[in-house]
Amino acid sequence: MNPIESCAKLLDPVKVGDFTLDNRVVLAPMTRSKASEGRLANGLIADYYAQRASAGLIITEATSVSPQGNGWVGAPGIYNDEQAESWRQVVNSVHAKGGRIFLQLWHMGRASHSDFHDGALPVAPSAVRLNGDGVHTPNGKKDHEIPRALETGELAGVVADYVSAAERAREAGFDGVEIHSANGYLLDQFLQSRTNERDDNYGGSIENRFRLLREVVEGISTAIGASRVGVRLSPNGVYNDMGSDDYRKTFTYAAAELDKFDLAFLHVMDGLAFGFHEKGEPMTLQDFRAVYSGTLIGNCGYEQETAEAAVSSGAADLIAIGRPYLANPDLVERFRNNWPLAPLPEMDTWYAAGDSPAGYTEYPNYDPATAAAAEGQS
Ligand SMILES: Cc1cc2nc3c(=O)[nH]c(=O)nc-3n(C[C@H](O)[C@H](O)[C@H](O)COP(=O)(O)O)c2cc1C
Predict the structure, then answer these.
(1) Which helix (H) or strand (E) holds 87?
(2) Can you give the pTM of this predicted structure?
(3) What are 133-164's pLDDT values in tens digits?
(4) Which domain holds residue 200?
């Protein structure tokens, strides 16, 4: 698309893969730590996503593709039948309200901890420790460990885990999946020179570092169809101790290669509101447009005005919004009617594990009558 020619609006419908979405607002994937024992989805999670079903597209919280990929207390999984079945109520509740929902597929790699793996070290491309302030384990906060480098012979199994997870997601009724290759998790660790020091076919050159993501994308596309597959990248991110000197070359190559798959979308965390590695000028959506011809989702720090500008200029086709969605389940309606937004909740509610709706599903929709009454009283 030529950016100059676009005059699309944020609340206009858009075609993504095989779907026509009602609008171009995407609920960004957000871990909320509300899964039940066994990393199962539940009714509370179903309510939360149903409340946000007016987003053009929902991308769920990151969801483990394998026990090895685990590393977050209260995060859900999709590696066994019981977990897949537990997601069905979530999908159904979103579909019942006319929404569309993709499941985000996750393997934490070195960002995990041995407490999640019966004492076995977390795995990564290379034995490079994450320099960070620790991991929240079931036994409290622990220091990061030096991960175990995956053997070349183990990687086909990792790819197979992603593919099975995608198949389970489809069986549960998800419209598609987003492959989480951002924020310093396993696929990002393979992609970036900062964390990949391998000397086999999965390390060294950019082409080799991209190989694992390529195989995951290929495998999942073959299994469920590329038009139901999106990929998330964070070229500018510092989260989980990321940022590589060759970030431009790496992500330009990755985007150009991903363009060949005819995916549903490429989701780029272009904004700096989730942290910036400061290795050079940030990569922009325009940088990605230059090499990627498909549907582009932008994210990080967008508000209505900036999201509208990104869509109308043609820089992005859709914009994903995270934190503003925490306390504004009806964000799209608020945008449409120019209603005010509820403020960002305290951070201690963002990831609070357990089965309480407080700080999770208790944020009301905006009601003009209630607001007018409150105004009158003040
Ligand atoms: C509470 C919370 C949980 C998040 N969990 C995930 C996640 O599971 N997967 C992911 O790719 N990004 C995750 N992110 C990053 C968001 O998707 C998004 O990129 C970030 O919040 C920046 O967008 P925003 O400025 O619109 O909030 C999370 C962010 C927050 C605030």
Answers:
(1) helix 81-96
(2) 0.97
(3) 999 999 999 999 999 999 999 999 999 999 99
(4) 3-377
